[in-house]
Backbone:
């Protein structure tokens, strides 16, 4: 039995979020809501906002399959669009430019239930906190499926981020080291590189960032070497 291969005309992929962002007010809606709360005039509020509120070429998106349906996170400037099966579920907008976005699932097993105010499904077990995490220059904004909103301050600049079953992983940007490397000796550079931990974990938005350690040939150390990198998570 022979198989036949049929060549079809290629079609351009248009993200669902791109279409939604065309009619989205973007960061203007935040300033409008703030003006209503403090009684500021709409004209005065709009005078502080530009229509072009995002750099060119910053749009990006991520895809995943959830319960046999394709989901999409579309990032455009200050706004993230979450869609499922070409249907927009939610949109999120923050004051700062969003650098990265990812789905996040935070496990609080073994934590104090009073700290997170979570119901127990079974004795000693607690449900995970699922939602969307948006990384800006100075904070991580987490919007949960239940409607909660957490803002966690970033103690460092983020180069990249990943989601995994224990929360979120972050790679620290080594911008200060790169700026000063030209004026430093090789010994000073080695000391600085080995002093700065590069990989951190956030297990819950209410917790602090924890450095990640690695074990290689029986030796345990922080992930702080220049060649340490995460290829897949």
Residues:
């Amino acid at each position: 039995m022979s198989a036949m291969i049929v060549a079809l005309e290629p079609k351009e992929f248009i993200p669902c979020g791109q279409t939604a962002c065309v009619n989205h007010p973007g960061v203007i809606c935040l300033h409008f809501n703030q003006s209503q709360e403090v009684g500021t005039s709409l004209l005065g509020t709009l005078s502080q906002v530009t229509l072009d509120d995002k750099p060119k070429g910053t749009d990006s998106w991520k895809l995943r399959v959830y319960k046999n349906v394709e989901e999409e996170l579309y990032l455009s400037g200050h706004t993230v669009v979450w869609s499922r099966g070409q249907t927009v579920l939610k949109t999120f907008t923050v004051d700062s430019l969003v650098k990265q976005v990812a789905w996040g699932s935070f496990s609080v097993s073994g934590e104090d239930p009073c700290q997170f105010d979570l119901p127990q499904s079974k004795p000693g077990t607690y449900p995970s906190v699922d939602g969307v995490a948006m990384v800006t220059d100075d904070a991580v904004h987490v919007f949960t499926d239940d409607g909660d909103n957490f803002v966690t301050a970033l103690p460092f600049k983020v180069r990249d981020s990943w989601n995994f079953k224990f929360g979120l992983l972050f790679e620290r940007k080594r911008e200060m080291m790169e700026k000063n490397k030209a004026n430093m000796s090789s010994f000073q550079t080695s000391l600085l590189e080995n002093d700065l931990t590069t990989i951190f974990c956030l297990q819950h938005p209410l917790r602090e960032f924890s450095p990640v350690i690695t074990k290689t040939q029986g030796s345990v150390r922080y992930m702080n070497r220049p060649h340490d990198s995460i290829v897949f998570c």
